[in-house]
Amino acid sequence: MLSKVRGPVRLADRVAAMLSEEIDSGQLAEGDRLPTEVELVKQLGVSRTVVREAVSRLRNAGLVEPRQGLGVFVTSRRTRPLDLAAEAADTKSKVLQIVEVRRALEAEAAGLAATRVTPDTVARIRQALDAIDAAVRAGGDGVDEDLAFHRTIAESTGNSVMASTVRYLGDLMHGGIRVTRANEARRADFIAAVRQEHHAILAAIEAGDTGAARAAARRHMKHAAARLQDADDRFWTETDELEVDLDTAP
Q1: pTM
Q2: What pLDDT sits at residue 112?
């Protein structure tokens, strides 16, 4: 019997992560049929749409396969590609693990962007920073704009693999960033610190200083982890009402 799904991360991601954990732990073994859609809705306390999206994610990851008229079954482990999305960042510990990986990637991306800097890349990075400020002034949480800032730096490296990897890990972090930015919105010193860290990265890239750019990005991710640790635990455990509050947080 599965538990009801709660928390600030997208429900479909959490359901997919929960089912994936059941499969990886052997609770759902190869050849087992998943509970029916109706059963999952009842057990998890979510809508059919959420269940369908979660199962679709597992199917795309090669974890399960539908059989006409029979249901959805767990596949052989041999057919499964690597898919970190199956381990959605739905807890503080998972997000911190992703931050550790991002620290190395973001630092290298910033360094490469500085090495290959052009007036155009600087303009695009600056525009991404301005978008964060504009989103916050408009009452948004700035999450999408924050992620776009880091993607823009990765894209400025000219390395498509780097850009895709940073984008992928950033997408996994979406829920965690929402939590930290909601926490930061309640701390003026956090808001100022994040803004200063972002601008330090831009300044180093604009100056073409590879070492300084790497250091600034690494420092930013280190501080991001510290701010995650500082986030109120209720952000990770409250029900969906908190998700609405986060969406409208100043």
Answers
A1: 0.63
A2: 97
